[in-house]
Structures are given as C-alpha cells and as structure tokens.
Amino acid sequence: MVPMAWAICCLLGGLLLCGGSPSPGPSVPRLRLSYRDLLSANRSAIFLGPRGSLGLRAMYLDEYRDRLFLGGRDTIYSLRLDQAWPDPREAVFQVLWPPQPGQKEECVQKGRDPLMECANFVRVLQPYNRTHLLTCGTGAFQPTCALMAVGHRGEHVLRLEPSSVESGRGRCPHEPSRPFASTFVGGELYTGLTADFLGREAMIFRSGGPRPALRSDSDQNLLHDPRFVMAARIADNSDQNDDKVYFFFSETVPSPDGGPGHVTVSRVGRVCVNDAGGQRVLVNKWSTFLKARLVCSVPGPGGAETHFDQLEDVFLLWPKTGKSLEVYALFSTVSAVFQGFAVCLYHMADIWEVFRGPFAHQDGPQHQWGPYGGKVPFPRPGVCPSKMTAQPGRPFGSTKDYPDEVLQFARAHPLMFQQVRPRQGRPVLVKTHLAQQLRQIVVDRVEAEDGTYDVIFLGTDSGSVLKIMALQSGGSAEPEEVVLEELQVFKVPTAITEMEISVKRQMLYVGSKLGVAWLQLHQCETYGSACAECCLARDPYCAWDGTSCTRYRPGTSKRRFRRQDIRHGNPALQCLGQSQDEEAAGLLATTTVYGMEHNSTFLECLPKSPQAAVRWFLQRPGDEGPDQQVKTDERVLQTEHGLLFRRLSRLDAGIYTCTTLEHGFSQTVVRLALEVIAATQLSSLCPRGLRPEERPAQGGLASTPPKAWYKDILQLIGFANLPRVDEYCERMWCSSRSRGKQAKGKSWAGLELGKKVKSRMQAERNRTPREVEAT
Ligand SMILES: *[C@@H]1O[C@H](CO)[C@@H](O)[C@H](O)[C@H]1NC(C)=O
Ligand SMILES: *[C@@H]1O[C@H](CO)[C@@H](O)[C@H](O)[C@H]1NC(C)=O
Ligand SMILES: CC(=O)N[C@H]1CO[C@H](CO)[C@@H](O)[C@@H]1O
C-alpha cells in the first residue's frame, strides 16, 4: 500500500471534507461496482446497436439456438450468446421492420408523437415452431404480426416472411410502453392487453390457431384498468387437459368495502388452455376465467398492515422435478407519501388452494364482499374440461357442453373470496428509502456448502442491478437481508425493463430501452485475495479454495479445502490457518510516512467493502498498553478514504492502525508510522531559494532540489528510507507549487467531496514524480 501522506500535499487547495466516519447500514452492498469496473473486468458487455439506442421493447432468450432476440424500434436483432458482443459485424443480425407505407403519416395525423409513438416498436417475440418466431409490433398504432425465420439450431438466419404479415390487433398493444403480457402455447398467442386505439378496452385474448379467437367478456367489466406484468402456461397436474395460462397483473378496482374511491390491488388470474367459450352464453368469450388477490404486506402491531399493492414484476422459479412451482413477485407501494418495494414468495400450491376455495360474492354494488354460500353448479366454474369433469353419463368434453347455469355463475363470480398470502405471511425482502425504484426481478437458486440459497437480482430504474439474499433464520424472525453487490450495468441512468437469466451460462441478460447487456452472475476474485475477504462476502456462488476466491461448485472432489459460510460469514472460524490471512492480520508491514508540522496530512485507508466500519488506532512513541482509538475533532477528521489532519501537531506522531470491523471480524488494513517533521527543523534545512514562498513563480530552474537538502534530512530520519524521502521532497516541493496555483480557490470551503478527492488522489498516485515536475 502506498502511503498517501505526501500525495495529498499536492491536493491541498482542492481538498474538501467527507464528514464523519462511515456508518454502514444493512442495505449497503458488500461490493459496489461501477459501469467501468464491470467492463474492464469482463464482468459485463453492452450492445446499444448502430444508433446508440435500440428502443428495446421485447427480449427473448433462446438457449436452444444460443441467441438473444431483441425487439426494438423498427428493428429486430439477433445476438449470438457464444460470441463477444462489441463486434457488430460478427455477432449481430438485424432485420429492419418499419411500419407499412402511409401508417406513420396516419399515426402523426391522429395526433400521436412522431418520434416516440409513430414507429413499429416490436413487443412480441415468441417461439412459433422449430424454425420460426412469432413477432408483433405496434406498427405506428396499427399493430402488426409476422413470422420471422430464424433457422434450425446452428443455422444463422434472420428473415421476415413477407407473406405472413397480418394485423396484430388483440395480439399487440397500440402503444410502445403500455404494460402488456403475452405467452405462446400450442400454436396460439395469449395476451393480456388493451386492444384498442384509445387504450380503454382491456382484455385477455387468445388467437392464432384454428380455433375461433377468444376474449374477455367486456359486459361484466372483469378487468379494471389492468396493468399486465406476465403470462405463462402452468400445468396444474399431470393431466394436460387441466393446463392453464396464468396472468399476473394489477387492477384499480372500486373500493372493496362498498365505499367511495378506488384502490389498486394485485391479481393472479387464469384461463383453461382448452377453454372454447360457451354455446349459448359466453360465445367466443372465456368461460373459465377466475382471478384472486395476491397480497404482499408486512404485518404491523394491532393487525395494521403495510400493503405493497402494485405488481412490478414476477419471476417463476421452476422446480427440480417433484416440487411445486414457486412465484417470486416484486411489488411497490401505491401511497404518495411512502415509497417502498417488497419481494414476496408464493407457492403455486397456495394459489391453487385459493382457486379451490369459495367464490367472492356481492349482493349489490354498495354491499360488502363475502364468500358465496349457496350451491355451486357442476362442473365447478373455472374447472377445465378434463378427467375431473368427465363423469359417467355427464361427458363434459368441452366448455361448450357446460350448462348455461355454470357459465352464468362463472360470469357473475370471477373473483375468489380468499386471498393468496405469501410464504411466512410476510415479504422476504422490504426496501424503503431507496435512491432508486425497483423494476425487475430474477431469482437463482444456488447450492452452497451450508445449504441452498435464493439469490435475488433486482433491476432498478437507474440502470443498476442489486444482488441480494434474504436469509431466513429459524422461527418467525424477519429474514436477514444481505446485499452482495450493486452493479451499475448501464452508464447512464435508464430503467431496466427486461431481465433474463441463463443458469447454464451463469449469465444475466439485462435490457433497458437503450440496449442490452450481459452480466456474469458472479466474479469471485473481485471479493479479494484473502480467505477472510472471500468468506465475508457471503456469496453462495463463491468459496475459498485454499489459494483464492473461486466459483463454488457443489459436489466436486476438493471439498474439504473449500471454505464458505453464507449463513454467518464468519472468517475467524472458516479461515483459521489460511496463510494469506495471517499476513493480513498480523504480519502487515508498517509503512513510514512523513508529515510537516502545521501542515495538513492524510493517512489513507481504503476498505474493500463499504459495509465495513472503519476505526483508527494510535500508539504514541513510548506508550505502553493497548492502542488508543484516535479521537476525531475539527482538526482530525475521519473521512471515507482515511484520516485527515488539517494541521499536524508534533504530538500526532505515532503508529496509526486502520482496522475494519465487519460481521464481528476485525481486519487491519494499513499500519502507518507517522513522523512529524518540525517546522523549525525544516526551515533550517531547506535552502532559502527553495522555500515555497520564495521560489520563482515559473519554477523551472528549481526542478531538482540540491542534494545537500536531502542529506540533512536523511541524517535526521535514517538512511533506510532513502527512496521515500526522495519522493517526499519532490512531492512536498510540488505541493507548494500546486498550492500556489490553487491559492485563489477556496481551500476548505465546500464540505461535500467524497469521490472527487478519491479520484484526484488516484490520479495523483498514478503519476510519476517526473510527470509531476512536468506540469
Ligand atoms: C475479456 O473478454 C475478451 C473476449 O471474451 C477477451 O479477449 C479478454 O482478454 C477478456 N479480458 C479479461 C480482462 O479477461
Ligand atoms: C414453421 O412455420 C412456418 C410457417 O408456417 C413454416 O413455413 C415452417 O416450415 C415451419 N417449420 C417447421 C419446422 O415446421
Ligand atoms: C497550510 C500550511 O500550514 N502550510 C505550512 C506548511 O509548512 C510550511 C513550513 O513549515 C509553512 O510555511 C506553511 O505555512
């Protein structure tokens, strides 16, 4: 570690104060990596397209073809997953797909924004068959669909089939940004959207196959201003006839207790894949649609609950065989006063349970909702025609066979009475007082040495990704939040709108309107080169293998050498006898630094993690007993990057130790012996011509201080430090020069510095003394 005491001399004029010592909270990430950090470490790469912005609206990760398909503005892109991205010639295919001639003009005439709305924003990219994708775009407010040839696996094809272009009404919204969800099942596209030009006609729509299109019954107002988030086919059991498509969305509904006003609630809704509508009632309308409320709230004292009602995103965690599907959902608050986010976890089995329960019933618009207590007709509304409904003598092979009574009931009772509650009855994660908003969620279930952990990746509206764990300790206690990393993926703040994970490639694909990035899920060496650092990181992807922090792979042979402790992050236990740590702890060399009496001096200490609490200790010459913690005041300040003496006193001399305390583990980062050169000593040693205030303004002639100057100082402090003294003198000399330049500025004025100082110190450190002279 290079002591910074002298470098800082050069910065005096611009140096400002950071304020008190850092006090890390639980939401501080262990590691914070900038856009530059990520690029330079090959942790991520970005594709922004030839124009610097894709206008991205859809993303489809195709692991079968090893491709990432992107739907942008008037363009579809295909990126190869197995090649470096920044090379546009090799890796990118693109197909232009602008609106049909005349559509753009028509769109502008209707009063839409020519730039932001009157283009073809591609919003649907779904696998159609083994050689084609189904793709739909807004078509300048005239939704259009087409098939896109992408070839068999291994072929590199991207071609729009001109003969397949057709209207996309009901399959794609008119607007580029309105919430929308779609999924392609058995040759048909299921969409949740508003299907008209004005964006008022909300529906769930199915089309594209040989069957007649099916839509929501608009008479009954089954959907209230919905914001669709996601759609997916989920098999409820082994009977394929019972498969359903589930929709996750928020609605703004009339106040449920019959009072005035509206409230936002989140929903899970579903329809049967084999729904064919009714014969006399609900013709070409859904006959199996049901919905239930998804609750995500924090229980408070006296039954008061804090609700997170606006659904932002959903991630389905598909099980290894035999287990129930798990649903991770990200919510935000609707309140104007309190902004917060929560992640709730639901088991599919709990959702099924609610759909098997009582229907919600209301005697009239002004009445309270209650459970329907009367007789429910057979087949039970919402049940798919399947083994369940096919009883002897009553062959309900299609919803068209369902009695009118059943369809009437379904139409009048689309809502379940019970609500879907999260696992543990509370969120796994709550984030308030965040600088950013959370938009996207992806979860990876990771096997570690001491158990299985869900690593949650959250995409923010400022272009960053948070990597977080919520550790469930036994009992009903709140989960412990461990923020592993904060990764600034995009250079400029931009909301993350798409996020896909490839567990096979250990990659996250992150999209914003600007472009798309890949991001490695982990890069263990970033945590440091010591066992303790690896252990403190508590990253389930990483373990100490005896020599470095590397990717943890469960079940490999060198098991007993691996050190990992996700639950407790206790390096004292894990890293006992690991050589590098002994070095870090005890055998750390002491570096001598020099400061000038009455001048300012800076002792640098940069802990690896912002989570660590930094403390400075001092042992004065001749002191016995334990080191004393350094007392800070307006003369001695503890900043984010070290200890700053604004005016050094002779009594400040001594050995300074900077330690970090993290998770009960204390580590010494630097040990510096500060020697104070008395003002009188220096003035007698320094030749008159070289005193800063008397030096010529241009300073050219004095660029090499006379040797005699050194010799006396060397005698003063011993020969061992020759190179350092050399440097000190150069720096000191330079410092007075730059100080001269900066004297006009306000020196100690502003108090908001932090990063500015750090980067200047970094720059300063990288310059050689020669360069310093040259300036
Ligand atoms: C980053 O990746 C590129 C291409 O994959 C490779 O050429 C380069 O050496 C890598 N750089 C580092 C620092 O690993
Ligand atoms: C996929 O569908 C297209 C359009 O109908 C058709 O031309 C193509 O042959 C199909 N591919 C396969 C593998 O069936
Ligand atoms: C800012 C400051 O106090 N500078 C002092 C540094 O030390 C020299 C030599 O003692 C003084 O002349 C400066 O005033």
Automatic annotation (TrEMBL):
Subcellular location, principal: secreted
Native source species: Hipposideros armiger (Great Himalayan leaf-nosed bat)
Key word Disulfide bond present: yes
SUPFAM superfamilies named among the record's database cross-references: Immunoglobulin, Plexin repeat, Sema domain
Keywords: Disulfide bond, Glycoprotein, Immunoglobulin domain, Secreted, Signal
PANTHER family named among the record's database cross-references: SEMAPHORIN, SEMAPHORIN-3G
One function term, GO molecular function aspect: semaphorin receptor binding
Residue ranges occupied by any Ig-like domain in the UniProt entry: 571-659
Keyword Lipid biosynthesis set for record: no
Name under which the protein is recorded: Semaphorin-3G isoform X1
Superkingdom: Eukaryota
Domain Sema per the UniProt entry, residue ranges: 30-521
Pfam (any one): ig
Family the UniProt entry places it in: Belongs to the semaphorin family.
Segments of skewed composition (Basic and acidic residues): 761-775
Subcellular location: Secreted
One Gene Ontology term, aspect cellular component: plasma membrane
GO BP, sorted A to Z: axon guidance; neural crest cell migration; positive regulation of cell migration; semaphorin-plexin signaling pathway
